[in-house]
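Late entry, evening session. Most of the bench is empty. Finally got around to the prediction I had been postponing all week. Sequence below, unchanged from the version circulated by S.P.
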Amino acid sequence: MPEFVTTTVDGRIAQVILDRPKKLNALNDPMLDEFSEAMAALGRDKSVSVIVISGAGQNFSVGYDVEPSNGYSEAAAGLAPYNDWESLRANIDRWLAVWDTPKPVISAIEGYCMGGATMLSVCTDITVVSETAVIGWPSIPLGGGLLSPPSAWLIGPKKAKELSFIAGSRLSGTEAASLGWANHAVAPGSVLDKALEIAASISRMPLELLRMKKLALNRVMDQQGFRDSILMGAEWDALAHTSASTHMMTDMITERGLKGAIAWFNSEENQS
């Protein structure tokens, strides 16, 4: 019985809900496994034409769970670079599986969409955000080129570099839509309704034609290097995780917790 992901089907529209609201839907390993299983099953279900992904509570997801209890500090503890790459690659494959799902996938984002959750949204076909949603990059530097390259396809390399170079960068939902990261920015509380409205319109199209249309559009981006740029993120992050500065930050998380590490990073002590 799934614990962290809820799935519902109404007619030809399925909903996949990230359901860990007390942790702001942070992505831990059990949730990720449940998510992949739900998406694979719905992808095979010929009675479903469109999948809408949202988050329980007031947030989409704050990204990967980097608390020590989730084992995030393994790299600092001596995880071999190949094993680190293998772990990173497994999560990238999850998002590319969304990209390859044989039917349209819509992400509906209220509240926070942070870190690894931004990769999920980039790999969906359509994104609806709240005007006040917060699209965020990690608040402390922990990796290399995992998160920003996928977004560069939507917002351009200049803006992607700015967001990547400044820890804790943020986009509002309104900004995200104006830059092309999202299709629509709507009033808070109406995101899911808008996503379901779009899904209802899409579901009128025969499923086999939806599949062809998605393949045709994805093929263009893949020929331009979209898939390779995402896959290379595992290599860049595995390399970054061998650096002394990353080990220092993961040690800080272990010692002070995530909030304490963020506070230290933004303190005058770190600037001296």
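Two things to note before I forget:
The longest strand covers residues 5-10.
The chain has one domain: 5-271.
Will write this up properly tomorrow.
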